[in-house]
Amino acid sequence: MFVEWHTIELLRPEIFLVAAATSIYVGGAFTRNRAFWVLAAILAYLVAGLAMALGSDVSPWSATSISSGPVTIDAMSLGLRWVALLLGPVFTLVASRLADPELVSEFLGSLMLVVVGVMLTSSANELVLLFLGLELISIPTYILLFLGRRDRATAEATMKYFFLSIFSSALLLYGVSLMYGIAGVTLIAGDEAVPGIREKFVELAQQPGPLAPLAPLALVLLVAGFGFKLAVAPLQFYAPDVYQGTTNANAGLLAVAPKIAGVAGLIRLAIVAVPLVGDFAWQLALVIAVLTMTIGNVSALWQNNLRRLLAYSSIAHGGYLMIGLAAAAATAAGAPSRGGIAAMLLYVAVYGLATMGTFAALAFLGSRQKEVSGVEELAGLGRSQPVVAAAIALFMFSLAGIPPLAGFWGKLTLFGSAVQVAARGSELPQSVWFTLLVVVGALNAAIAAAYYLRVVAVMYFQPGTAQPAAEGGRGAWLATAACAALVLLVGVLPGRAIDAADEAERTLTSRSPVAAPSESSPMAAVPRAVPTAGGVR
Fold it and tell me: What separation in angstroms does the CA of 179 have from each of 28, 134, 185, 273, 330?
């Protein structure tokens, strides 16, 4: 009984937000006052943030880890929960003027459930809760896409995302079922008294069972399922059409929320819990990274639709995140380096800030009747809307990785993790491949700079004929300003964010048990780290 109550205490912010979302859904049947529901939603996020700040002794800079039942609160989960709590108010402010007055409660309630899904996925230490969190992101997203606009393009985008999301969920469930079949438990990380998948796989690495050869297939299916969330090749093809067919607010939500959940799920399952399958894991991640970066950046070069351009940008950033996965997988396979997990966490946070800000700015420039869609519609924005133009330029520079903005530190840590593997790799093929990965990543960053700078050039150096409506309201403007301030703050003072990401990786890997796998095992590598005494379980 104590464990169940302790679990409820750890999930107080999520429980409160679910109750608040339910109240917003029900209350919308009695009043359609948009300002009232926006204020209520923002207050709910503030209360949830206060509950999370006061609810435990764990901080993003602490090595402490608290586990209770299916929930783990550590530096990674806490950091991603804070990012999710930022996501909610940003898009709530964007919706303060643009949401349909007749459907505002449905929009805000569904958005709040998406935030809860991201928070649950970040904290899940059990397969069922992890899948529940992912579905709590997907199902409300279908509603949000449908509520965006009432036209044929929106309906088509919603159906594409719906069917492909179901397909990716099926792949993920198949991979999860294989993990359960191999390990025999649903707990992801346990201890000596209550072993989880991590501990079971350590035993199987020493004494392979009859199902151990299925581990590579489970890994492929997990990467495929989470790869849809990250929009990585070959599951990226839905993104351009879906982004183009929906609103700027919904496109921004699609670009950020699933990526946070995908990173959290990959780290929990594919890196920490499962001893990766020798060189196969980093080779798979490396190939996906190269393909995804190249497809996203090259395809974005000739795009004239802003949402379509940013969709390919999102694909490219999914490829950058796979660099961190490849480095983390190589580390688990024996490379004497670290940093892949920390790089993924830092990168998804700084990417999220710049992307949320970009779409908030585009929402501000549009109206309920007409979205800002074409790159040419931004012509002359530097004169007509100098503050918003400066914010968009800031976001473009950050996404391009130009110092001293937040995106620069994200790319630096990702490329640095791959450089460490290349420089310290014990095997020559591994060193060569990671060197090539860094070179390809740098070339892709240069290609990306071309289309990001093109947007800036249009705003400042191309005369505008028709100015955007700029009827998005003060809420969208405030969301844009907040994201711009955070991008600048993290860029100028990156130490705390980098320390938090490093601490998250240190906490995750230090709890991984040591094993000496047999040479005949298909799981020929496990995380080589020693347990820490700082964890609380």
Answer: 42, 17, 8, 10, 21
Radius of gyration (C-alpha) of the chain in whole angstroms: 22
- Quickly tell me which residue has 């609160």 as its tokens: 73
Handedness of CA 336, 342, 343, 344 (dihedral sign): positive
Non-local (6+) Cβ contacts of 274 within 8 A are 179, 197, 198, 201, 215, 218, 219, 523
Q: Can you tell me the distance from the alpha carbon of 270 to that of 265, in angstroms, rounded to the nearest whole number?
A: 8
The answer to whether the beta carbons of residues 70 and 126 sit under 8 Å apart is yes
* 8 A C-beta contact, residue 176 and residue 127: yes
Listed in sequence order, the DSSP H helices in 301-368 are 306-332, 340-365
* 3-class secondary structure per residue, 36-77: HHHHHHHHHHHHHHHHHHHHCCCCCCCCCCEEECCEEECHHH
Contacts of 47 (CB under 8 A, 6+ apart): 16
Q: What's the half-sphere exposure (Cβ side, CA atoms, 13 Å) at 79?
A: 31
Is residue 138 within 8 Å of 165, Cβ to Cβ? yes
Q: What are the pLDDT tens digits along the chain (537 aa)?
A: 445 777 888 888 999 999 999 999 999 888 888 888 999 999 999 999 998 888 766 666 666 778 777 888 888 899 999 999 999 999 999 988 877 778 888 999 999 999 999 999 999 988 999 999 999 999 999 989 888 777 787 888 888 899 989 999 999 999 999 888 888 888 887 777 777 787 777 777 677 667 777 888 888 899 899 999 999 988 888 899 999 988 888 999 999 999 999 999 999 888 877 754 567 888 889 999 999 999 999 999 999 999 999 999 999 999 999 999 998 888 765 554 567 899 999 999 999 999 999 999 999 998 877 888 888 989 888 888 899 999 999 999 999 999 889 999 999 999 998 998 888 755 667 788 899 999 999 999 999 999 999 999 999 998 877 777 778 888 999 999 999 999 999 999 998 889 888 888 888 876 544 333 333 333 443 333 333 333 333
Q: How far is CA 202 from CA 144, 266, 277, 365, 415, in A?
A: 42, 18, 12, 54, 30
| DSSP state at residue 269 | I
- What does the alpha-carbon distance between residue 420 and residue 536 come to, in Å, rounded to a whole number? 31
How far apart are the C-alpha atoms of 28 and 101, rounded to whole Å? 10
Maximum distance among all Cα pairs of the chain, rounded to whole angstroms: 71
Q: Which long-range contacts (CB under 8 A, 24 or more apart) does 34-39 make?
A: 34/96, 34/99, 34/101, 34/104, 35/96, 37/104, 37/105, 37/108, 38/92, 38/93, 38/95, 38/96, 38/104, 38/108, 38/475
